[in-house]
Amino acid sequence: MDKRSPGTTHLTDAQRIDWLRLIRSDNVGPRTFRSLLNHFGSARTALERLPDLARRGGASRPARISSEDDARAELSAGQKIGVSLIAPGEAGYPPRLAVLDDAPPLLGMRGGKEVLMRPTIAIVGSRNASGAGLKFAGMLARDLGEAGFVIASGLARGIDQAAHRASIASGTVAVLAGGHDRVYPPEHVGLLAEIVESGGAAISEMPIGHVPRARDFPRRNRLISGVALGVVVVEAAHRSSSLITARIAAEQGREVFAVPGSPLDPRAAGTNDLIKQGAMLTTCAADVINAVAPIMERPIELFARETDDGEPAISEPDARDRDRVTGLLGPTPVLLDDLIRMAGTSPAIVRTVLLELELAGRLERHGGGLVSLM
User: Fold this and answer.
1) Do 222 and 356 belong to one domain?
2) CA dist., res. 240 & res. 259, Å (int)
3) Cα angle vertex 197, ends 196, 198, to 5°?
4) Which terminus of the chain, N or C, has less C-beta within 10 A?
């Protein structure tokens, strides 16, 4: 059995292979992985049941299930460049990330594990940053580092790289959108090497060899905010990816900080809007430190899980259940809680139908507990 319990995960080599196979199989994301593991008790049993669940969900053809050879090859390729795959609860897995419902079941890590266990603040912002923005990001990262905080960012051009460079001595974490061997942008390969060699760390949920695509960056952003107590946005235009990070941070219960800028500079339009929406106006490290101090005093607790009410994660729906739930879904996202209420059946039945649809490649999950048909 390899069910997870908070802070006590210790995978055997065989279990790590099974976990890797499951999360690398088609249509299995972190939430689906957790539902499968909670119900079937082990990744190996879940792998055996995948074809049947996908068939019930209406899959037009069998989905790809990652092979043991592929999993062993990925582990071996990672080990050659110093990457370890760690599960929530194992040494080096960021504790605040571990409690999220969509935490990666296996996180690729290289560098110093200790830095990932320390209090962390994320700093993000414009790739096309102003000189003033770059200077402030570096100053803030340096001051927070001297106060004992690790700085997390996305290794991007502009604000991200300024924050990383200023905190190399005190500790910084680079969160990658691609595989560890596919650094983006390419000119930051040297910066990443310097981070890792200085005792910092790099993390990614993507397999070795994965070239980052546009859709991978929002997925990466949830990890940037997930490892941190709070996120500081230094510069961000309207429709900036940094605003996505801020939104995800708020959904995760993280503090959101925004550095004000000139109304005449479009690079400050997004941060100024964040302040209007309730983000904490930030002009120095003390603003951040004072806000997160009470949070640091509280123990890290697991968020409520979908199955905490004692119901099984997966029940056995009949044809009427499937028709009822599927009929309520469409291209417009709907809240899971609303779907359960309208379906008039148990939450476990609804979740099982959604799981079948997801494994069949017919369901899309959105932020905030929203789901829709593909």
Assistant:
1) no
2) 15
3) 90
4) N
Query: Would the CA dihedral through 364, 223, 125, 174 be positive or negative?
Result: negative
pLDDT digits (tens, 9 = 90+) for 161-191: 999 999 999 999 999 999 999 999 999 999 9
Does 107 map to a domain?
no
Backbone phi and psi for residue 256, each to the nearest 5 degrees, phi listed first: -120, 125
Pairwise CA distance, residues 253 & 330, whole Å: 29
* CATH number where 349 lies: 1.10.10.10
Provide the token pair at 110: 């290289």
Indicate whether 133 and 209 sit together in one domain.
yes
* Distances, alpha carbon 298 to alpha carbons 95, 96, 152, 256, 262, in Å: 13, 12, 21, 18, 36
Q: Domain residues for 70?
A: 13-89
Retrieve residue 44's tokens: 């190996």
Average model confidence (pLDDT) for the chain?
90
Cβ atoms of 71 and 47 closer than 8 Å: no
How far lies 321's CA from each of 44, 285, 374, in Å? 27, 54, 19
